[in-house]
Amino acid sequence: MSNTTDTPPAAPAPAVDPRLLVREEGLKGYLAEFKRKVRGGELGVLPVVIGLAIIWAVFQTQSSHFLSATNLSNIGYFLSATGMLAVGLVFVLLLGEIDLSVASVGGLSAAAFAVLSVTHGIDPLLSVVLAIATGAATGMLHGYFFAKVGVPAFVGTLAGNLFWNGLMLSLLGSSGSITLKDTGFLHLVGQRSFFMGSDISGAYILAVLAVAALLGSSLLEQSKRRKAGVPFRPTSEIALRSGVLALLAFGAAFMFNQANGVPMALVLFLAALAVTDFVLRRTTYGRQIFAVGGSIEAASRAGINVAFIRISVYAISGGFAALGGLFFVAQTGTSNLGGIGTPNLLMMAIAAAVIGGTSLFGGRGSVWSALLGGLVIQSIQTGLDLLNMNTSVQYMITGAVLLAAVVIDSLSRKTQKASGRS
């Protein structure tokens, strides 16, 4: 019989949140964390930022006017209409679904606005509200057939695309076109409307507001996380992030002031991005959207009303399609089938969301994808226009960029799965 006594096994060392280690190591820790994320397939917006830089560099070498203040201002203005459609599509893509009706819904809503305000003389502001309500209602209908009846989203929204295009033609009448007046909401988002007019302080006011919003929200989050005893960003990191945003914001403000100022269409688009980003990242409803997109079964077991999430998301998509339609007719001054309702615009909106970083497989993405992807697509279009190149080249280049974005997303997911981070 042995005299030795069995010693109990040593207690395992408590797990340490890797974010704490990163922040204790300072800049070295952040670089290590960045490398770990890249190796694990978490690329974030890195591919689209690199791609955008390459596109700008190539076009600038071909035309010195490309990075001029006027041209960049035009890019910011014209991406707003497609961007609005892309915002709604981001919500749908987060569910791992698709909405093929956004262009026709936008066209129908714009036609409804034209008929109400021009043909029947209804107050323009009320007409805008009714047009947006029309888009949201059509989206809700798509969501109902998908969530309650079980019609695949691809088929249901494709049928909606055909039906709403036909209804738009019926509303526009035999002429197929209604000319709109440059007043009210259309003037607000039109090409000749700028934030605070020609006053250069307007752009700088927006820059101050953007930096203040980031700084305030970051400090508030830091305070809440500190009180809760969970990892939080140190003040030095918050100051660095705010400083980088300040450089970008004031640089953009200076650039816009070299042209005519900040287009109101872009201001409203950025405001929409800020609001929807808050909804997705800071509200229970937003977290439920990500949960449903990640796993329907897990979301249902967690008590999430999956049908409600699906229907409401499609309603949001329809509402933003209507806004996109109104922005588009404000740019062209005419509501017709050859503009907002075309399949080309639908493809561009989907491409903007996906190229910007929102996954086609659901559960991963951000509304800021609509801005980044829109910048890529509009930069390609504007650059080719400056070079007087055929539209067919634009389609080919955009298609290649879209394929590259999907390939990167697929490889990223495989890498994450292999590394156990999926």
UniProtKB/TrEMBL annotation:
Q: Which UniProt keywords apply?
A: Cell inner membrane, Cell membrane, Membrane, Sugar transport, Transmembrane, Transmembrane helix, Transport
* CDD domains linked to this entry: TM_PBP1_transp_AraH_like (cd06579)
> Principal localization?
membrane
Where is this protein localized, as stated in its record?
Cell membrane
Membrane topology of this protein:
Multi-pass membrane protein
A Pfam family annotated for this chain is: BPD_transp_2
Tell me the superkingdom of the source. Bacteria
Q: Where are the transmembrane segments?
A: 43-63, 75-95, 102-122, 128-147, 154-174, 194-217, 238-256, 262-280, 311-330, 342-361, 368-387, 393-412
Q: Which PANTHER family match?
A: ABC TRANSPORTER PERMEASE PROTEIN YPHD-RELATED-RELATED, XYLOSE TRANSPORT SYSTEM PERMEASE PROTEIN XYLH
Biological function: Part of the binding-protein-dependent transport system for D-xylose. Probably responsible for the translocation of the substrate across the membrane.
Q: What is this protein called?
A: Xylose transport system permease protein XylH
